[in-house]
Amino acid sequence: MAFAIAVLAVPGEVSAQGASGPVWCHDAGRDLVRRTAPADCTGKVVDDAGAARIKAERIERVRRRLQGRVPPVAGQRRRGSGTGFFVSADGHLITNNHVVDGCAAISVAPAGEDESKAELLAADAGHDLALLKIAARPDGVAAFRDPATLHQGEDIAVVGYPLHGLVTIKPILVTGQVYIGTSPPRADMFAMSIDIRRGNSGGPVLDRSGRIVGVVVAKVNTPGVFAATGQLVRDLGYAIRLPVTTDFLCRHGVAPTPDPSFTDLDDEALFARARAFVARIGCWK
Questions:
Q1: Least confident among 39-53, 125-139, 145-159, 215-229
Q2: Is 151 one of the annotated active-site residues of the chain?
Q3: Distance CA 244, CA 165 (A)
Q4: Fewer CB within 10 Å, N- or C-terminus of the chain?
Q5: Is 107 a catalytic residue?
């Protein structure tokens, strides 16, 4: 006796098998859908209607989240955003100087909380670091790896607020590896094979224990490199080395919290640890 087979699938999902061109890939963890090669899709492949629905739902979620909020800086508009992380229980946090440079006012929004105004205490344009402070006490404080030595191919993670066409309202975790095989633009940086984007600037680079090993600062200019060399280089980012970061903090009266212990965390536990000390930085002009 033959039996009919019912294939159960979420409406809008399709198979990537046999696809010859770009597909819509839904990455639920990052709350986005984008066109990509079938082999590069790490989420679920959806059809055109599914992609349109996911985009519309995300826009509506952002609209509801922002509706009715009073801007933290009266008379100003947000002109840029980045990521930062708390380095003291007194409300000090660190980010990139280029995230806050030239801002008339700065706002900080810890994960899941409203924005508040921040004070710029110190800036180092040469190393692209800035020290901020808010009045409230954070839920968590980042711990710094001790010793700071990194190894080629070591697993790392970045947690931050990357831009995907809309303001990101919740932190996102991406994973990658240390990439010592290429020379970074400056000696105070190291390279990473990881998918970072605008908005990640100033965010923490973590080892698998959730300890700080660097500060996100830049990503490779893929079109520029291709135009100059003919090589397609993707997902290559740069971070400020840990000794430079801790020296900056010490020079401005903030003692970093060292952590010599190591516990290998899965992505969920790693994200939970980082979520307590990351924040979205707003630049208002």
A1: 215-229
A2: no
A3: 32
A4: N
A5: no
Amino acid letter, 232: L
Do 89 and 138 touch, CB atoms closer than 8 A?
A: yes
Closest CA to 214 of 128, 117, 100, 281: 128
Tell me, yes or no, if 146 is annotated catalytic: no
pLDDT for 62-80, tens place per residue? Answer: 666 555 555 667 778 888 9
Q: How far apart are the first and last CA of the chain?
A: 73
- Mean model confidence pLDDT for the chain: 85
| Catalytic residue selected from 26, 188, 201, 207 | 201
Catalytic residue among 31, 88, 127, 128: 128
CATH number among 3.40.50.1820, 2.40.10.120, 1.10.10.10, 2.30.30.100, domain 73-285: 2.40.10.120
- pLDDT tens readout for residues 16-41: 455 667 888 888 766 678 888 888 78
Given 98, 127, 188, 195, the catalytic residue: 98
